[in-house]
Amino acid sequence: MPAYTKSDLQRRMHGAVEALKHDLGGLRTGRASTSLLEPVTVEVYGSHMPLNQVATISVPEPRLLSVQVWDRSNVGPVEKAIRSAGLGLNPISEGQTLRLPIPELTEERRKELAKLASQYAEKAKIAVRNVRRDGMDSLKTDEKKNEISEDERKRLETEVQKLTDETISEIDAAAAAKEKEILQR
């Protein structure tokens, strides 16, 4: 059986793009987004749980997040978790609801976030290039085992390169869109 499979390479490259989109979703842009609170974990019932498992998160206004805590006894721990998450958010408690006004980003902070977005993109590109290298290596292995001809290997290498180029341009587009979103006022 050949070591090279196109579907495996596509799946792994797509995984790198999905990971990038998840990372970029957590970057604050000055607009409220529920993905902003995804990394927050709350210590309740003797364990650490993701915030979305103890509360409902919504966006009632463009610059406001609302966190509706299900169990009244968890309001304190949820508030503490949000404050200590390093997101620069200050929850305002109103019974079982926490209101999180999203502060304006300073120009300096915008530039830091844009730089971070390009670092995430570079990390994703490296992952894609590693997948490409693995694909090229398996093609050479297949050729050595006489499972494919030299012409077939060259054709498939071109296919792998095309897949790599498409994935990298998708990464660039996602990062550019996020940077534009961060830098615009």
UniProtKB/TrEMBL annotation:
The keyword Coiled coil applies. Pfam families: RRF. Keywords: Coiled coil, Cytoplasm, Protein biosynthesis. InterPro entries: Ribosome_recyc_fac (IPR002661), Ribosome_recyc_fac_dom (IPR023584), RRF_sf (IPR036191). Residues 20-183 form the Ribosome recycling factor domain. GO terms for biological process: cytoplasmic translational termination. Its main location: cytoplasm. It is found in: Cytoplasm. Residues 139-166 form a coiled coil. The keyword Secreted does not apply. Transmembrane segments: none annotated. GO terms for molecular function: ribosomal large subunit binding. GO terms for cellular component: cytosol. Gene3D superfamilies: 3.30.1360.40, Ribosome-recycling factor. HAMAP family: RRF. Responsible for the release of ribosomes from messenger RNA at the termination of protein biosynthesis. May increase the efficiency of translation by recycling ribosomes from one round of translation to another. Belongs to the RRF family. This is Ribosome-recycling factor. It comes from uncultured Sphingosinicella sp. The gene is frr.
